[in-house]
Amino acid sequence: MTRIAVIGAGKIGEALLVGLLGAGHAPDELVFTERYPERAEELSAKLGVKAVDVSTAGSTADVVVVAVKPQDIDPVLAELGPALRPQTLVVSLCAGLPTKLYEDALPAGTPVVRVMPNTPMVVGEAMSAVSPGTHATEEHLSTVEKMLGSVGRVVRVPESQQDAVTALSGSGPAYFFYLVEAMIDAGILLGLPRAVAADLIVQSAFGAARMLRETDDHPVILREAVTSPAGTTIAAIRELERHGVRAALIAAIEAARDRSVELGKH
């Protein structure tokens, strides 16, 4: 039995617990930490998983998943370090934080795996990228991949690419939500009720994502299949290009990457 502790029971932490339970882990194989007592009590009642403090999590778990905000990491590591058992696997879900930060703060030889998940974890459709630290083995990576596979898809990348992953898929859902929000507003401007516009766009987004996944065609091919000569779609594409939407998206993702680098340095 592998005992897993999730430090930080926000949206991502809760989603991981739900996924692990759904994958067959018994509630007594899991524990979590939560700074707000009311939230801890609510989650324990909902999932049947025990809330503990950070020291208890570190001293009893085989795998410790750190899912706190990056700015909260220092006090967590200060409490976790003295309690951690030798060879306990530490998995970081914190944006921008390098494995070296954990390795320097925790007992020598602690295996660390860095992960960049995203919020579709709450519906079991996360995209997570994993990278090993200095002391993480193939077995450690396989353990993390199996764990995260319960809540979505997983890829391995070198840690040097994690800031790019953070910008692309970590923040990626927000870009899609932003575009969907704008398209719903456009539908309202054109005279559609909000509920109708939302239903039209959300289902279109869902269907388009399935086409990308299931046909394995390049996005250009799929877009061209919708774009008739002198038709409505090409008129819309011309306006998107005229307003620099493509360039703005690229610049936005670069800015997110730069911010991820800054978080790691601080």
Keywords:
266 residues, alpha/beta, Rossmann fold, ProC C-terminal domain-like fold, 2 domains, eight-stranded mixed β-sheet, 8 strands, elongated
Topology:
Layout: E1 4-7, H1 11-22, E2 30-33, H2 37-47, E3 50-51, H3 54-60, E4 63-66, H4 73-83, E5 89-92, H5 99-105, E6 112-116, E7 126-132, H6 138-149, E8 152-156, H7 162-170, H8 172-189, H9 194-215, H10 219-226, H11 232-242, H12 245-265
Parallel strand pairs: 1-2, 1-4, 2-3, 4-5, 5-6, 7-8
Antiparallel strand pairs: 6-7
Helix pairs in contact: 3-4, 7-12, 8-9
Could you describe the 3D structure shown?
The chain is of the alpha/beta class and 266 residues long. The chain has 2 domains: 4-158, NAD(P)-binding Rossmann-like Domain (Rossmann fold, 3-Layer(aba) Sandwich), CATH 3.40.50; 172-265, ProC C-terminal domain-like (ProC C-terminal domain-like fold, Orthogonal Bundle). Helix content is 56%, strand content 13%. The protein has an 8-stranded mixed sheet with strand order 3-2-1-4-5-6-7-8, with helices on both faces. Strand 7, helix 6 (138-149) and strand 8 form a beta-alpha-beta unit. Helix 3 crosses helix 4 and helix 7 (162-170) packs across helix 12. The longest helix is centred in the C-terminal third of the chain and has 22 residues, at 194-215. The mean pLDDT is 94.
